[in-house]
Amino acid sequence: MRAYNFCAGPAALPTAVLEKAQQEMLDWQGKGLSIMEMSHRSNDYVAVAEKAEADLRKLMNIPENYKVLFLQGGASLQFSAIPLNLLGKNNKADYIHTGIWSEKALKEAKRYGDVNVVDAATLIDGKHAITEQSTWNLSDHAAYVHYADNETIGGLQFADVPEVNAPLVCDFSSSILSAPLDVSKFGLIYAGAQKNIGPAGLTIVIIRDDLLDQAKPEIPSILKYGDQAKNGSMVNTPATYAWYLSGLVFEWLLEQGGVDAIYKINQDKAKLLYSYIDASDFYNNPIAIANRSMMNVPFTLADEALEKTFLKEAEQKHLLNLAGHRSVGGMRASIYNAVPLEGVQALVNFMDDFAKRHG
């Protein structure tokens, strides 16, 4: 049997997707070769790439005046690519700081322009939270405002999309496709694939057309969104297999009923796990209810000395990758789209049994 994988990334993929990829590994659609061995400029592969984009557009209801790019380098490369692409005409940007990933993004941006940092992380009754937007000191004429929707490591998520006057840029790496999203509210959305889209090695960038001419002149062509858009994300050889697998995930999501349907399942999973933690004296979640992540659930044990025992016993029950990030410790269950409800139920059952035996 396959284990339940709660890894934060690279993360679980739908079993049906892996099975289809397995079936097509040596012979893709009767062509006698793997899609990994196929030219990215062949008619067959271009059709695969175009269908993946079309399915993503359908899933997210992406307006026609947005380009969808399938790029390499992970979301971390976009920490540099975004200021290089958007600060060419106005060298000022606002960055909302809520955790480790938003901090990494703003540190890179400071290399290329004037960055106004808005510290929006706070504590409410001892719980981590995000401050009200009315308290933010935003610039009057920023080229864009950047934030990370969901801090994967801390399990801290925005309750709503911020309302700002400048183009809104957001890192959706760990929350894309988990819930309905109005793309038209954003100037640019980006997301590493290895959490809710596909395998590591691919990054999605969704950018509004009017922002394609804002680049700094010295930007490398491979990082320039305008060049990538003109060349179908193929300025150089793209991450072909990751792109193909992501397309299979998009097909799978559509078969589940799309983002609205998976959102309801995600809500049920999160409610199940958080409700159990809240009712327990043995476990604790450090995030204020309004800003709890639907995808990444950190929790601690009443006795820190039991953590290694917890992880060892969990693995014996085929519940994998529950250790928290090395920077914060504790536990973390990442319950992305591919993690089924029964996987979360199995985790809750184990947590309850463990607490009864060690509490």
From TrEMBL:
Keywords: Amino-acid biosynthesis, Aminotransferase, Cytoplasm, Pyridoxal phosphate, Pyridoxine biosynthesis, Serine biosynthesis, Transferase
Positions with a binding annotation for L-glutamate: R41
Residue ranges of domain Aminotransferase class V in the record: 4-347
Recorded metabolic or biological pathway in which this protein acts: Amino-acid biosynthesis; L-serine biosynthesis; L-serine from 3-phospho-D-glycerate: step 2/3; Cofactor biosynthesis; pyridoxine 5'-phosphate biosynthesis; pyridoxine 5'-phosphate from D-erythrose 4-phosphate: step 3/5
MF GO annotations: O-phospho-L-serine:2-oxoglutarate aminotransferase activity; pyridoxal phosphate binding
InterPro entries xrefs: Aminotrans_V_dom, Aminotrans_V_PyrdxlP_BS, Pser_aminoTfrase, PyrdxlP-dep_Trfase, PyrdxlP-dep_Trfase_major, PyrdxlP-dep_Trfase_small
Positions of modified residues (N6-(pyridoxal phosphate)lysine): K195
Binding site for pyridoxal 5'-phosphate: A75, S76, W101, T152, D171, Q194, N236, T237
Cofactor: how and how many bound: Binds 1 pyridoxal phosphate per subunit.
Main subcellular location of this protein, as a coarse class: cytoplasm
Domain of life according to the entry: Bacteria
Annotated catalysed reactions: O-phospho-L-serine + 2-oxoglutarate = 3-phosphooxypyruvate + L-glutamate; 4-(phosphooxy)-L-threonine + 2-oxoglutarate = (R)-3-hydroxy-2-oxo-4-phosphooxybutanoate + L-glutamate
One cellular component (GO) term of this entry: cytoplasm
Subcellular location(s) per record: Cytoplasm
Cofactor(s) required, per the database record: pyridoxal 5'-phosphate
Function of the protein: Catalyzes the reversible conversion of 3-phosphohydroxypyruvate to phosphoserine and of 3-hydroxy-2-oxo-4-phosphonooxybutanoate to phosphohydroxythreonine.
Annotated NCBIfam families: PRK05355.1 (NF003764), serC_1 (TIGR01364)
Assembly mode: Homodimer.
Name of the protein: Phosphoserine aminotransferase
Species this chain originates from: Acinetobacter parvus DSM 16617 = CIP 108168
This protein's encoding gene: serC
